[in-house]
């Protein structure tokens, strides 16, 4: 049985996505990229554009599970609210696509992928390239999204191992 996981790094101007497939205990890279939103558009129109573009990603890859970066409160409350709206759009479209939604904090994902919650984005990207056998990941937003998907796949693998060990 295979499972398609779509990782998402939501944003009000750039939303990264990364798609992996898990089968027979292996993680396979399917695709990654970004949804670039028109910065000259009003925020509501950007959210409408995000919804339409993310719906296309959902329809193309048909993931069973979507993994979204948890919101964090930084110094700028306005940015956090905008991020919350983008997350809401993504969650809505994931739900409409009948995918199960999971959330992880950035530090948890970094720790799961690199072993350090304080790892740099470049360190995360280097590990992902090695794990997924990729030469390049062009955008940091796509790399962040792939990290979400891979971390979730790692968590599923650990859970399966534990369940087998307990049943022995």
Assigned CATH architecture: 2-Layer Sandwich
What distance lies between the first and last C-alpha atoms, to the nearest angstrom?
22 Å
Count of structural domains? 1
Which CATH class applies here? Answer: Alpha Beta
- The general outline is globular
Q: State the total count of DSSP E strands.
A: 5
Major sheet description: 5 strands, mixed
Which structural category do the helix and sheet elements fall into? alpha/beta
SSE ordering: EEEHEHEHHH
Residue-averaged pLDDT, rounded?
A: 93
Note poorly predicted spans. Answer: none
Structure description:
The chain has 168 residues and is α/β, with parallel strands linked by helices. The protein has a single domain, classed as Nucleotidyltransferase, domain 5 (2-Layer Sandwich). It has 5 helices and 5 strands. It has a 5-stranded mixed beta sheet with strand order 3-2-1-4-5. Helix 1 packs parallel to helix 2 (77-96) and helix 4 packs across helix 5 (140-167). The longest helix is centred in the last third of the chain and has 28 residues, at 140-167. The mean pLDDT is 93.
């Amino acid at each position: 049985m295979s499972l398609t996981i779509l990782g998402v790094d939501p944003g009000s101007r750039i939303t990264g996505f990364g798609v992996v497939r898990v089968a027979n205990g292996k993680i396979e890279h399917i695709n990654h990229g970004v949804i670039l939103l028109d910065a000259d558009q009003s925020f509501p129109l950007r959210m409408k554009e995000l919804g339409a573009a993310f719906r296309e990603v959902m329809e193309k890859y048909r993931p069973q599970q979507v993994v979204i970066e948890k919101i964090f409160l930084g110094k700028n409350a306005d940015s956090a609210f905008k991020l919350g709206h983008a997350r809401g759009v993504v969650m809505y479209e994931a739900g409409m696509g009948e995918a199960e939604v999971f959330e992880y904090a950035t530090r948890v994902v970094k720790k799961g992928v690199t072993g350090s919650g304080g790892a740099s984005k470049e360190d995360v990207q280097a590990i992902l390239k090695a794990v997924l056998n990729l030469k390049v990941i062009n955008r940091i937003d796509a790399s962040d999204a792939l990290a979400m998907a891979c971390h979730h796949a790692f968590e599923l693998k650990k859970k399966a191992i534990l369940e087998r060990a307990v049943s022995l």
